[in-house]
Design brief:
13 helices; 337 residues; globular; 8 strands; eight-stranded parallel beta sheet
Length: 337
């Protein structure tokens, strides 16, 4: 694709997701790790009615690097059909391996599949496996090469900065500069968890040097604050439940409705502090459990083969939080908040 074509795509996407919520959606699976047909269809229908800018599939919340190809393809096709006028972002990457070129090839093939199935953009998994494959002096160049190969497919690209303490890989400021020079880059998703300083530093650099790139928050645990620090949109796993609450938070922020923003931010923090707790890998199961509690999917559609089971009392705690936030009615209807 020529530069004019990618610029047009980036401008269209920027307008479509600015100030919007993009939930990273989980996949309802049964006990055999097969797609739960009833749960899948019910979740699609539920999210069709939510005030979202689109969804992210194949992300960590949707176990994108773990799913069988047939299930993954079905998931993207069905979300594309369900949200025909909204943005679909697909997570792409590689699990790593002994060979850098093979990892690049795997990630590129995944990107090509996403393009064929109708994704509007891709989000590149942080290549944490490079920490084992290359010494620090070589790592930065490989990170950039990896992203350039994925970008060559021609889809708009969202960088993913997952802080090293959270299982990702650090991008030095100079590496970020090189990544932002890739024409296909739409912006960056920040998911630093407990490293507020990292978020602040990258946000400041982006707003100062690259004002045309989107700062997309993935900070479930400090969503409101990340908006205050300049996030243009949100791509979060927490958005898979109670999407209306979080979309209203973004709307209040963009409208400058300070009192309502603070009220909503406190409510969203309460949800995050129930779903995103240790062990953090259990958040996918907690999100699925919340969907069960809300009546969106059946209990036998809430399996996560790759994460821990809920600790005793967690399901009840999730229910109490949802009730406190006013979610009481059929199909996750929020009342009275």
């Amino acid at each position: 694709m020529n530069n004019k074509g990618i610029v047009e795509k980036l401008n269209k996407l920027r307008a479509a997701i600015k100030n919007g919520l993009i939930p990273a959606v989980p996949v309802p699976l049964d006990a055999r790790a097969a797609l739960h047909e009833t749960g899948h269809r019910a979740y699609l229908e539920h999210m069709r009615g939510q005030p979202i800018a689109g969804v992210a599939v194949w992300a960590h919340t949707g176990r994108g690097l773990m799913l069988e190809t047939e299930i993954a393809d079905r998931v993207l096709r069905d979300w594309r059909a369900a949200l025909a006028e909204k943005t679909i972002v697909a997570g792409v990457g590689a699990r790593g391996g002994a060979d850098f070129e093979k990892a690049c090839a795997a990630a590129t093939r995944m990107t090509e599949r996403a393009a064929r199935l109708g994704a509007d953009a891709v989000m590149v998994y942080a290549p944490a496996w490079l920490k084992e494959k290359a010494p620090a002096p070589q790592r930065a160049a490989l990170i950039v090469e990896y992203h350039r190969k994925i970008a060559s497919v021609g889809l708009p690209l969202v960088l993913f900065y997952l802080y090293e303490e959270a299982g990702g890989i650090d991008y030095a400021p100079e590496t970020l500069d090189e990544l932002f020079s890739i024409p296909e880059v739409l912006g960056i998703k920040m998911a630093t968890l407990d490293s507020v300083m990292t978020f602040q530093d990258v946000a400041r650099r982006l707003k100062t040097k690259y004002p045309d790139k989107l700062l997309i928050t993935g900070e479930d645990r400090f969503l409101g604050y990340s908006l205050m620090r300049g996030a243009d949109a949100a791509l979060v796993g927490m958005g898979a439940v109670c999407a209306d609450l979080q979309a209203e938070l973004l709307k209040a922020h963009s409208a400058g409705a300070a009192e309502r923003f603070l009220q909503l931010s406190a409510a969203v923090d309460e949800l995050a502090e129930t779903l995103f707790v240790a062990p953090l890998e259990g958040y996918v199961k907690r999100v699925l459990a919340a969907l069960v509690e809300l009546g969106v999917i059946p209990a036998d559609a809430a399996h996560d083969p790759w994460g821990p089971e809920l600790a005793p009392g967690e399901f009840e705690a999730i229910g109490r939080t949802l009730a406190a936030l006013g979610y009481k009615g059929e199909k996750a209807c929020r009342r009275g908040f």
